[in-house]
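Q: Given only this backbone (353 positions), what sequence would you predict?
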């Protein structure tokens, strides 16, 4: 399949290639307005229904056999001896990811959140039974065929009850971090510079809903990222680093939420951070669905204790509003004075909000 064709273009861009690892790169500018496309999050309630037991996953280098829009071809015209324009979406275009996501969402729009989840070229197909799963797979491949999209069989997994998707292991028990990533965590050495620290914290932030009180534990590490702070690795930083690694190595399993069941939100606040855990009872006691925490801003650290506790509750409801709106929710906090907040005769504006 040709990826470019000859053309007579009025305006073109000279073709150039950058050496691998080069610090400077040549860029061309074209009047392309940025587009946005919503990609799913693995922690969203609509993403993974808890009663689906059979899964298939695909890492799909989808190839569209139809030519791209003529305007895209004109805007990506380039010169290498002759004038050429792309016939497929090339790498590097500002709208390439969003265009791909929008295309896939359009192709599978009637299957999304029913039996299909799409994150760019990673696709998860889920069903309650094997028989239904075969029907869902047939519908999926029929869509590919109708829209002249091609995939590669060696990148697909079928009829699995446990598989890797977006860096997580998904099974009938719930979601947990991919064991391959856990091995990398176990071998992670203490950061010796700011770049290595940012890399570690970036990974921790990606799996933050698996870590209770992540913001409080990582405080000594995130403090090193502040502007004007010298990089000094001491006992506090080492203790925080080891504590985070230890929690990650526990390989906590987060259950997939069932919207029809009651939720329980447990919150807490310290002098530097607020945190919460979202839980449900699946018949064997309360089990975690997600953890959430953040550091308090400087002004928030001056709040009275009962306002810090209320701040944790408000933050939890904002983060998990997609679960909690209209649901049966019980909130547990360790500060009894919150019981009398409504009866306070002269609440301040912050308390009223």
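A: Predicted residues:
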């Amino acid at each position: 399949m040709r990826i470019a064709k000859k053309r007579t273009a009025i305006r073109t861009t000279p073709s150039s290639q950058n050496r691998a690892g080069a610090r400077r790169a040549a860029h061309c500018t074209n009047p392309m307005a940025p587009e946005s496309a919503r990609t799913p999050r693995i922690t969203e309630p609509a993403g993974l229904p808890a009663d689906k037991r059979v899964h298939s996953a695909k890492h799909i280098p989808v190839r569209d056999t139809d030519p791209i829009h003529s305007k895209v071809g004109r805007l990506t015209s380039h010169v290498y001896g002759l004038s050429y324009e792309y016939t497929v979406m090339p790498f590097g275009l500002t709208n390439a990811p969003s265009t791909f996501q929008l295309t896939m969402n359009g192709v599978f729009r009637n299957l999304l959140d029913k039996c299909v989840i799409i994150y760019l070229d990673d696709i998860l197909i889920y069903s309650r039974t094997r028989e239904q799963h075969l029907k869902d797979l047939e519908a999926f491949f029929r869509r590919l065929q109708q829209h002249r999209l091609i995939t590669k069989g060696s990148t697909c997994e079928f009829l699995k009850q446990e598989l890797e998707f977006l860096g997580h292991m998904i099974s009938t028990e719930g979601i947990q971090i991919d064991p391959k990533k856990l091995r990398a965590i176990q071998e992670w050495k203490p950061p010796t510079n700011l770049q290595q620290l940012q890399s570690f914290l970036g990974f921790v932030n990606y799996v933050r809903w698996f870590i209770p009180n992540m913001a409080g534990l990582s405080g000594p590490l995130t403090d090193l990222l502040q502007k004007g702070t010298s990089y000094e690795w001491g006992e506090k930083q080492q203790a925080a680093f080891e504590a985070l690694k230890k929690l990650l190595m526990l390989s906590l399993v987060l259950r997939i939420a069932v919207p029809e069941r009651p939720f329980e939100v447990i919150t807490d606040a310290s002098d530097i951070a607020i945190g919460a855990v979202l839980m449900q009872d699946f018949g064997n006691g309360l089990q975690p669905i997600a953890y959430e925490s953040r550091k308090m801003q400087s002004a928030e650290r001056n709040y009275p204790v009962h306002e810090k506790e209320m701040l944790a509750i408000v933050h939890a409801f904002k983060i998990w509003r997609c679960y909690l709106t209209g649901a049966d929710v019980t909130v547990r906090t360790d500060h009894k004075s919150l019981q009398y907040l409504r009866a306070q005769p002269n609440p301040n504006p912050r308390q009223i909000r």
